[in-house]
Amino acid sequence: MMQTPFIVASYAIAITGVLGLFAVSYVQMRRAERQAAALRKERRGQ
Amino acid sequence: MHRFANPARFLKIARVATPITALLGLALLAAGLGLGLFSSPPDYLQGESVRIMYVHVPTAWFGMGGYLFVALASAAFLVWRHPLADVAARAAAPVGATFTAVCLMTGALWGRPTWGTYWVWDARLTSMLVLLFLYLGYIALANAYDDRERGGRAAAILALVGVVNLPIIKFSVEWWNTLHQPASIRMSGSSIHPEMLQPLLLAALGFQLIFAATVLMRMRTALAGQVIAARAARLAGAHG
Known about the structure:
The complex is a heterodimer. Chain A is an all-alpha fold. Chain A has one helix at about 5-45. The radius of gyration of chain A is 20 Å and the shape is rod-shaped. Chain B has 7 helices and 2 strands. In chain B, α4 packs antiparallel against α5 (about 150-160). Classes of the chains: A mainly alpha, B mainly alpha. Chains A and B meet through α1 of A and α1, α2, α3 and α7 of B.
């Protein structure tokens, strides 16, 4: 049995799953912290 | 530990720790997986398919380790009512669920060329599937209530009850006749050849740091979300 497709699929799943969640978490964090910082700044300006 | 439960102090530490763990994790993961794919030797029995070990084993370890973290944070939330403990448990659950799902899928892909089947209802595989369901149950329960604290408490109880599954996963290969092989790395030593062990440990450390960085980022998102929600509530109060 050809083993290469199983190896490629395993690495693709692991990298997509783990690093995908990592990337999504990073984008969400940046967006939320930017929004929170803008709100704090706005509050200080009032 | 209580000192770090202060959100302001936690954020101060997390802002420094996040880029360090993330960058170090990515570098170690690239090194471990690169060595595992291109430099480590094939197994004398399994052949090339042994390379799946470098993604399957670390995701299994941190799928289980992540659940232990969720349970410990849940216990801290139930005992000391630290809101940050609830934030930590909620942040770690989807990360642990992802690691567990990756472990199950890569295990199936390793099983086909090794055992001749993607899946068997064997004790190790089934208890690992139960772990995924526990994670999904925790996430669903934590978000099922309008009152965040009630949801957190219900989910924390489920997390603590589910801890019983961890020793079942660990010892399933010794307690029952399973298709899954017993542990190759024990406290007494390892039966893995050093040329395979080195990339495995590098990849494991990389996955662990990526896990930690993802949890830190999700906790920071949740804390920023609380600031945004509090502001929205104040604005609604002022206009209402």
